[in-house]
Amino acid sequence: MTTAAIQTTWSELLAATLADAGIATCVISPGSRSTPLVAALAGEGRLELVTIIDERAAAFFALGAARATGLPAAIVCTSGTAAAHYLPAIVEASLASVPLVVITADRPPELQDCGASQTIDQIDLYGRFVRGAFDLGAPVGQVPALRGLRRKIVQAITLARGPHAGPVHIEVPLRKPLEPALPSTDDERAFARAAADLRGPVAITPPTLAADVAALAALADAIAAEPDGVIVVGAMPAAFAAHRDAVFALAARAGYPVIAEAGSQLRFGPRPSATTHAVATAANTAANTAASTAAANTAANTAAANTAAANTSAANTAANTAAAYTAAANTAAAYTAAAYTAAAYTAA
56: closest CA among 79, 25, 87? Predict the structure, then answer.
């Protein structure tokens, strides 16, 4: 089998797998080494292709598309320094948790580290700013390699979507000749049929994260204990739109104002109605009134208790005083009686 036929089949399966896995938008910055990829992507009718020559601009365009839809967008460029121009958008996608599939063409292993034009070490080019990096290896005419190609692409897209969404890097080394070629031998046609048999819809089901129940309870207690709070909302993933009402409900229940920064989705779209605000205000007023009543009752009970204690203390004091006077009187009478008795003996 010829290199051109193998690479054509390989690239067509790559493009089909992207579409099978839910990629809808692909932004291309054309170059020589990426020719087989671009030709295959152009032949995949399910993909919306956008051509932007400058790689930096292309990456930011894809970043915006992914941020708006919540779905991964793909970007494709040639080898060498072209791939380095993607880095600013990749950093932003990483920090903002925006899914992005970065596909970079590359020279094959035999052209590495020998001064070949537009050849740099692209393995781990984006460092920790990608959720994962996948090297597909140079295309070979073996069916197991086709299965590996498809599996790695599906793994990359799944990783890009969660649970911590962000960019992923797919490295695709390609050999000359780079022009597409139709299968012309029995082996090449059998290889192409094997690739076609691998196609089909792919269910991307990334893991999801769930909040700890105890942590939520602790947070609720902390909010309930703090009447003077504020909710600050920044830019969130596209899926956040489904939870905007929950933020407003939290604000209404806690009595906290909401401050939305410039990139927040809360600055646009529907907001709670006046009725909702009135109900929330009434609920807060009722809660405050109940709290005030409880405080007043507590104060009254405390005052009554203090009064009763004071009265009891006064009564005890009076009783003690009366007892003291009685004891003194008895003592005086006793002394007087003794004096008379002594006088009587003396007289006798």
Answer: 87
* Structure confidence at residue 282 (pLDDT): 46
**Single-letter amino acid, residue 300:** A
Query: For residues 155 and 134, is the Cβ–Cβ distance under 8 A?
Result: yes
Helices 244-254 and 213-224 pack at an angle, to 10 degrees, of 40
Which CA distances in Å does 120 have to 104, 107, 132, 343? 12, 9, 19, 134
Sign of CA dihedral 264, 265, 271, 272: negative
Distance, in Å, from the CA atom of 260 to the CA atom of 319, rounded to the nearest integer, reads 70
Q: What is the pTM of this model?
A: 0.73
The residues, ordered by sequence, that sit 6+ positions from 49 with a Cβ below 8 Å of its Cβ are 26, 27, 28, 41, 42
- Stated as kind and residue range, the H or E segment containing 336 is helix 274-347
Q: Cα torsion for 102, 130, 64, 72, to the nearest 10°?
A: 60
CA 327 to chain CA centroid, Å, is 84
DSSP 135-151: E--S--S-HHHHHHHHH
- Identify whether the C-beta of residue 219 lies closer than 8 Å to the C-beta of residue 250: no
Query: Quick one: angle between helices 143-161 and 186-197, nearest 10?
Result: 30
What is the dihedral sign for C-alpha 46, 153, 57, 38? negative
Number of Cβ within a 10 Å radius of residue 68: 11
| The predicted structure's pLDDT at residue 273 | 66
Peptide bond into 163 cis (omega under 30): yes
Model pLDDT for residues 157-212, shown as the tens digit of each residue: 999 998 999 999 999 999 999 999 999 999 999 999 999 999 999 999 888 888 89
Percent of the chain whose pLDDT exceeds 90: 57
Q: How far apart are CA 156 and CA 44, in angstroms?
A: 20
How far, in whole angstroms, is CA 261 from its chain's centroid?
Answer: 17
Instruction: Report how far residue 168's alpha carbon sits from residue 123's, in angstroms, rounded to the nearest whole number.
Output: 12
Sequence-distant (≥ 6) Cβ neighbours of residue 302 within 8 angstroms: none
Are the beta carbons of 66 and 237 closer than 8 angstroms?
Answer: no
pLDDT for res 261: 87
